[in-house]
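fyi for ur records
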Amino acid sequence: MFDKGLLTLTDIKKTMRGLVGLYILQAFLIVGQAVSLGLVITHLWNGKPLKEQFIYIIGFLLYVVQFVSNFHDFDVSFPMFSLSCFPHI
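which gave:
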């Protein structure tokens, strides 16, 4: 549920637009991760050498790093995963 009282806060519309933008970016990053990982798995299954897959693996890792760095400024805590294990990002 959405509390309409939130709209009375100062600068809430700007903040909400930023959050929506981050969620859209997150959606594209998840799709990019899936495509990269899917290409690697498919190519390996078809017998192509691992050397040829490094560009897709690097692409997958770049999506992961970008995804984690997007949430670095937020106070997000998960029971089994903490962003504090990435102090350099």
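Residues 12-45 form the longest helix (34 residues). thats all i got for now
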